[in-house]
Amino acid sequence: MKKLIIFLFLLISFCLVEENVNRSEAYHDFLIAYLYKASQCNSQPEYFLIFPKVVSKRWLDACLFSIIRSECPFNDYPSICLKVYEKEE
């Protein structure tokens, strides 16, 4: 029983830890989605996103998924991409 409680505690604490990525990794993943959508739609936003030094992987993934799933024309980024600028607490 004691092992089960410890296991559950570790599992829950592991799941609640926010995973972050650095800016270079975020740009690598972002460029793949950006270039895919730009080539698919033959259009792209007039500006490029500038990421902070540390980005929440959860919000970055949501942004990338939203970019890929967005409708053409690709003239602006989905609003969910603004979440990458929020500071996680």
Question: How would you characterize this protein structure?
Answer:
- By secondary structure, the chain is mainly α.
- The chain has one domain (19-85).
- 53% of the residues lie in helices and 7% in strands.
- The chain has three helices and two strands; from the N terminus they run αβαβα.
- The protein has helices spanning 2-16, 23-41, 57-69, and strands spanning 20-22, 54-56.
- It has a two-stranded antiparallel ribbon with strand order 1-2.
- Helix 2 runs parallel beside helix 3.
- It is elongated and about 60 Å long.
- The two termini are 33 Å apart.
- The mean pLDDT is 84.
List the keywords.
89 residues, mainly alpha, 3 helices, 2 strands
Whole-Å distance between the termini? 33 Å
**Quaternary structure classification:** single chain
Number of helices: 3
Give a quick account of the main beta sheet: strands, pairing sense, barrel closure. Answer: 2 strands, antiparallel
Average pLDDT value? 84
Rg over alpha carbons:
17 Å
Q: What are the secondary-structure elements, in order, as H or E?
A: HEHEH
The total tally of domains equals 1
Q: How do the strands line up in the largest sheet?
A: 1-2
How many DSSP-defined strands? Answer: 2
Q: What is the approximate shape?
A: elongated
- Which structural class do you get from the secondary structure elements? mainly alpha
Low-confidence stretches: none
Helical content class: 40-55%
What amount of the residues lies in strands? 5-15%
